[in-house]
Fold these 4 entries.
Entry 1:
Amino acid sequence: MNARIAVTGANGFVGRALSRLLLSQGSEVVGIVRPDVMCEPGVVTRTLDSLSTATPDVFQGCAAVIHLAARVHVMHDDAVDPLAAFREVNVAGALQVAQAALIAGVPRFVFVSSIKALADSDRGHPLKETDERHPLDPYGVSKAEAEIALQDFGNRTGLEVVIVRPPLVYGPEVRANFLSLANAVAKGLPLPIGAVHARRSLCFIDNLTSAIALCATDSRAVGEVFHVSDGDDPSVADLARALGRHLGRPARLLSIPVALLRLAGRLTGRLPQVERLTDSLQVDSTHIRAVLGWTPPVALDAGLAATAAWYRSSTNDQSRR
C-alpha cells in the first residue's frame, strides 16, 4: 500500500473524487469531516466539529494532508460580517490544520485554493502564478490571505506547502453555477449570452484530482503554486453550445450586446453576476506542466460529455421517483 493521506473536506465534490483516485492508486485515505457526513467507501473517517479543533492525533501516520475544507463562495451570504466568517474558517482554520499536521510529523501540506485568490478577471492575459493578488470578494480575500499565511508558516517551520489554484471546476455531481447553466440549457431556457465572447478557463474534476494527488507526492512540488486547468478555454457562449450538444438540447442563445447586459446588471443590482459572465478569466497552467510534467488526462469536450451524461442520468432518476 502507498502512503496514508489525509483529506479535509473528503465528503465534498472534490473530496469524494479525490478520495476515489487516491484509493485506486493504493493509498490509504483518512477523511477529515464533520460528524454528520459520509465519505466514500474505503475511506477511514475521522471527525472534527470545526477546523479550529484540529489536533495532531487526527493526522498521525500521514505522509501528506490535502486541505480542501473551506467556507465556500456563495451568491447571497447572510453572515453579519462575511469577511470575518471567511477568515475564521479559510485562514485561521487552515493554519490550525497546518499546525496540527506539523506537530504530528506530516511532511507535506497541499492547500487547494482558488483562482479567485488572484483575481476575478484576467486583465487581458492568462493569469500566471507570479501575478500579484487582487482578490475582490470576501471569499477570494480569505483564500489569498490563507495562501500568504501558509507560505510563511512553511518557510518558518519546514512544512512542505504546495498551493493549487483551480478555476471553475466541473464534472459529475457538480453543483452551483455550472449546474445552473446545465439546467437552463437542458430546459431550453433562453440565455442572453450569445454575444459574450469572453473566455473562461475550466477544470474537469478528474484533471484537478490528478494534479492534487501528484502535488501530494512529488518532491518537485514543494514550495510551489500551481494553476490547474483543462488548457482549453471556451467562450461562455461556446461552453453553453457544447453543453447543449452533449445534452441533446441545442442551447437557446440570445445575442444581446455586452454593454446592455452590464447596464441591466447595474439597474437590477446584479452587476457582479453579469461581470462573471462577461469578463474573461483565463489561467496559464503551463507551470505545473513544466515543473511536474503533468498533463490533463481528460480533454474539455470529454469532460463536458461525462458531465452531461451524469446530468441526464440524475434527472432521469429524479423523474422516476
Entry 2:
Amino acid sequence: MKPRANEVINGTYGTVWVDGELWAEVDTFEAKVTVNYEDVNFAGQGGTFKKATGWAGEGSMTIKKIYSRVQRKMADQVRKGIYPRFEIVGKLSDPDARGTERVAIHDVTIGEFMLLKFEQKTLGSEEIPFTFSDYEMIDTIQ
C-alpha cells in the first residue's frame, strides 16, 4: 500500500499531562530509551558480540513560560532535600493521520530546572530535561 502525505503525523496535535494536569504550553516533547550493552568476546571469534545489561530512559520538553510550574514542583522541595518524582503521559493524535500514539512515563525525575531566565524582546520558554525508570505504550499507530 502506498503511503499518503496526510498520514504523516503532525506534532501540532501533541499533548502532555504531568501528574494528571494538562500542560498545554508544551512546544516540544521527546522521551527515549537507550539500551545499554557490554561487549562479549569469544575465543576464536573475530567479531565483538553484545549483551544487553539494561536500559535508561531520558527526555526533555520545552514549554512556553506562562506559569512557574516546574519551580512550584521542585524549588522548595529540593532545598529541603526532597527530590520529587512525577508521572507524564504524552499523546500524539493527528485527526488526519492513521491513529494515536500515547505513552505513560513513570518515576520521572527532573535533574535540573531554571530558577529565572529572561531575554529582552523575546518570548519566554523553558527546557526541562528528565529521566525515567519505567514506561508503558498505551496506544500505537497501526
Entry 3:
Amino acid sequence: MDFIFVSGDLSLDLACTVGHRRSARIDLLPSPADLARWTVAAGLLDAPPPATAADLRLAVELREAVYRLADAARTGATPDPADRDALNRAAAHPPVTVTLGEHGVAHGGDVRAALSSVARAAAELLGGPRAAFIRECEAAPCTRLYLDTSHRRARRWCDMRTCGNRAKAAAFRARHQT
C-alpha cells in the first residue's frame, strides 16, 4: 500500500500510518522495511536506511504518542505525560542532516534521526498555535488527523480526492434514491 501525505504536517502523516483506527485497523508500517520506505516517501531521507525491529518499535511508540497528543489537542482532553515523554525522548536524538552539495540538497541519517525530525515537528505543532487547527476526517471509517488551514476553518475531510469525493457521492446517491 502507498503512503498518503495529506495531513499538512509530517508528524500527523506519521500518526496517520494507521487507518481506520476505530474499525478494521490498517497498519501501513507492519515491518522495518516499510518504515524505511516511509522515511524516503516522507522526504526525510534520500535512501531507505537499514531498519530493525527495535527501530519499528520506537516508530510505533512515537506514532501512537503523536496520535494521542494530537487527538487530545483536538478534543481539549488532558494529554498523557507518558506520551509527551515518548515524544521528547525521540526528539532528543540528533535529527536528519541536511547538506547542500554540488547536485542539490542531501538528507542523511538513520531511522532514529528521521524519527527525531518527526518528533521535533510534532513538538512544534502541538506546542504552538497550529494545534488549534487539528481536525479528524469526518468520512467514516477514516480517522486521519489533518491541519485545517482552509480560509474559514470549515474543511471536513482529510483529502477531497478520496474521503471528500466518497462522502459527496454517497450524499448524492442518498438524495436520489426514491
Entry 4:
Amino acid sequence: MSDIQRPEARTPRGFIDRRARDLVAERKILTAVSAIYERYGFEPLETPAFEYADALGKFLPDADRPNEGVFALQDDPDTDSGQWMALRYDLTAPLARFAAQNWETLPKPFRRYAYGPVWRNEKPGPGRFREFVQCDADTVGSARPEADAEIIAMAAEGLVAAGVPAGAAILKINSRKLLNGLMASAGVADDGQKLAVLRAVDKLDRLGPEGVRLLLGEGRLDESGAFTKGAGLSAAAAERVLAFTEAGAGRGDTLGQLANVIGGSAEGDEGLAELAAIDAALTSLGVGAAQAVFDPSVVRGLEYYTGAVFEAELLLDATDEKGQPVRFGSVGGGGRYDDLVARFTGERTPATGFSFGVSRLAAALRAAGKDAASDVRGPVVVIVFDQARMADYFAVAGELRAAGLPAEVYLGQSGMKAQMKYADRRLSPAAVIIGEDEFAAGTATVKDLDLGRELAKGVTDNAAWRAERPGQATVARSELVATIKKILDPRP
C-alpha cells in the first residue's frame, strides 16, 4: 500500500469549472454587447485584476488585513513598504482609479467599456459565485441626463443583442434624488433611519406593500419568528413612502404622480427634471415604455449612487435543473455615481454607467430555453483506421481546416466504436471515415452525427430536411469539404 498523501481533487467553494457550453455562451454575449458599445462610440479598456486595496474603498473595513468582501494579498510582505492589493470586485472602481490617474490626457467625457472576471469574498449560495463575469459601459465627465439615457438605451439594445427576446426584459429607472426628496417630504433626517427606509423599499417585490408598511413602522416578524426592527416612521410618513413606491411603472404619468408626492423638495424637483430629460432622450433614441420605465421602487447602491439608478430585469419564464420555476430578476444595473473619482482627486467628477452580469444572464437564458450556446459543436473528427497512415489523416484534417472547418484527427489508441463515441461526446457535427478502400478509390465516408442526434430525440418534424441528409454517405475526396459544409449549414 502506498503511503503517498494525495490531494483530493475538488473545486474551491464558491467557484466553478466552465466548459465549452458556458464559455461559448458568455463569449457570444460579450461579443454582441461589445459591438453595441462600440457602435455608440465607446472605446475598450482593460485594467489589472488587482488594485491597491485603498483604491477600492468601502468594501475594505480592515486596513490591517482587508480580506472581508474581497480577496487580498500583500505586495512585498517582507518589507516595511508592503501594500495590500485586492482582486477587483467590480469594473467601476478600477475605472475611477484609471480616470483619476490619467485625467489630464483623456478625452472628456471619457467613454469606455470593459469586460472580464470580478471576484467577491462573500458567502456563496445557489447561483451565487465568488467569481463571475461582468461587462460595463461608462461615461466619465458628463453631468447631462442624456448621458444616463444613452447608457440605458445601450443596455436595452444589449439585452436584445445578447439573445433576450423582445419584450422579455425591462429597464427600471429611478433617482436617488427622488428618494432623498421623499425623505425630506416624510420628515426623515437621521442617516440610520434613511437607510432603514431605503432597505424597506428595496424589499417591496419580495414582501409586498403590507410587509414594507411594517418595516417602515415598528418592524416585522417573519415566518421563522425572527423580528426585523423597522424604520420607526409615523403612520402618515409610512403612507407617504408607500404612495411614492406605488406611483406606477411608466414614464410620463409616473413623473406626474411622483411630483404629487415629493413636489416642493428642491432635490426631489431636481430629480424629476432629470428624469424628464432622460425620458425625452430615450424617446428620441427609440426606447419606448415597453423597454424602459420609471419605477420608484428601484433602490440600488445605498451609499454609492448620486442620481439616476437603473436595473435590468428579466421577464422570461425559467426553470431550474429540477424543472421548478425560478425567477432570475435583475441581470444588470447601474446609475450615476458622481463621487467615485473624487475619492482620488478631491474634485467631483460626474460619471454614469451600466454593468451586465454576463454569467448570470447566460445562466438565465439557458434556464429559459434561450441558450446562447445551444448550437455549440465540436470539431469534425477524422477517424483513424491505420496508424501507419497518420500523415494522410492529418492531410485530410488540414484540408478541412484550410476551408475554415474545425477538424481534428483522433489521437487515441482505440478502435472504431470508441472513436465514434469520442466524436459524439465532442458534439462533433460529422465524422470522416477513410480506410484502405477509400484511400484506394479516392473517396471518403462521412457520417452525419448531427442528424443522428436529431433522430435519437424522436423528432417527427423536419421530415424533408432529414430526407435530404443521409446519415452516412461516401463521396469523392474532392467533394468532402462541400459535404461537411452542408451538414454544418444545410440551408440552400
